[in-house]
Amino acid sequence: MKISIVGTGYVGLVTGTCFADTGVNVTCVDIDEEKVQKLKTGVIPIYEPGLDRMVLSNVEKDRLHFTTILKESIEQSEVVFIAVGTPPDEDGSADLSHVIEVARQIGKHMTHYLVVVTKSTVPIGTANKVKAAIQDELEKRGAEIEFDVASNPEFLKEGNAIDDFLKPDRIVVGTESERAKKIMERLYKPFLLNGHPILFMDIPSAEMTKYAANSMLATKISFMNDMANLCEIVGADVAMVRKGIGSDSRIGNKFIYPGVGYGGSCFPKDVKAIIKTAADYNYSLRLLKAVEDINQDQKSVLFKKIKEHFGEKLDGKTFAIWGLSFKPNTDDMREAPSVVLINELIGAGVKVKAYDPVAMEEAKHHIDSSLVEFGKDPYDVLIDADALVLVTEWPEFRIPNFKVMEKLLNNKVIFDGRNIYDPTEMKENNFSYYSIGRPAITNG
Hints:
Elements: E1 2-6, H1 10-21, E2 25-29, H2 33-40, H3 51-60, E3 64-67, H4 70-74, E4 79-82, H5 97-109, E5 114-118, H6 126-141, E6 147-151, H7 161-166, E7 171-174, H8 178-187, H9 189-193, E8 198-201, H10 203-234, H11 238-246, H12 267-280, H13 286-298, H14 301-310, E9 318-322, H15 337-347, E10 351-355, H16 360-363, E11 372-374, E12 387-390, H17 402-408, E13 413-416, H18 423-428, E14 432-434
Parallel strand pairs: 1-2, 1-4, 2-3, 4-5, 5-6, 7-8, 9-10, 9-12, 10-11, 12-13, 13-14
Helix pairs in contact: 1-3, 5-6, 10-12, 10-13
């Protein structure tokens, strides 16, 4: 079976590579010639554990191909996935210009029946726009070629995308025809043999499912952060509360860890987009508006704790930051809480020293790198720092050498934005320790 994937960003590259790994002949299309040439040699533009090896392996086995020419790629394809970016506009709506342009190019060059699948996260009604754009180009050519449009939203977690694709919780496909359904069923057959469910539904429901899923997860995060803030006020421990509610099977223990807010390419964008979609239909998603507001406020919670400890005048102090990416196992800095914190610290006249295992180069595109000193390892940035601020819970930060930290830091103070340290251990090591939703430890 031969398919084409248009777009070699995060979604397109993971999708194409994983399909190739199941034996499908995949051609990935991108307009960036330099990027395509690098991909052919296994050099990938994103950080995703294991993806570089999988790309190179499937290129060597002649199952995964990269090109800049869409026309050639779809000549023998049965399915074409649209996986280009849908960046947010200023009003929060998704920019569909790239999606529609790909649809027009498909209409210009297709020669036989195709299933055209939207893989990008797109608002409800996008499939109709894709269908209209393809049909418009066919009519300009005077061509009568049948095609179907389907929706197949992705549910990939950055840092765990390969497993998420190969071992999915569910596969959602929105279709309008039995012919398209059978083709998509054949494409996903390897997953069905392993017992992973494929859920066929109408196209608007499939488009809505992606937004609803991410909005629910974002809601759980903001809910827990709101509860954590209240726990601090009333003297409760959110870690105990989390265990208490997480043991309820109706709630579950996932996505109820408090922190400094969600970021990344999906949750912030998708919450904004579904709020905008609702507004376009004169409906207000009041809950999700609150979710978004809580998340924005939460990104400043560590800065508030820093001011409570050191006072309002921070000018001249130095702070060490551990973790820059919005979550571990990725270099994604989009909507990362660290960006908000670093800008707040710099605005207060603070010197910032930062370390992240993989995201420091990417961070330079999101913050003023001339105002931040990047370290060669976690302990390097602690030298002469007045406190450590942990923002991203990378595994290598979980069991640090507190004796070494004590010697390097000017003050034994830690602000833990992910609650990865044990308050009892902090007290035993005589550190002042501030976390999220738990009583502060003030020692020394």
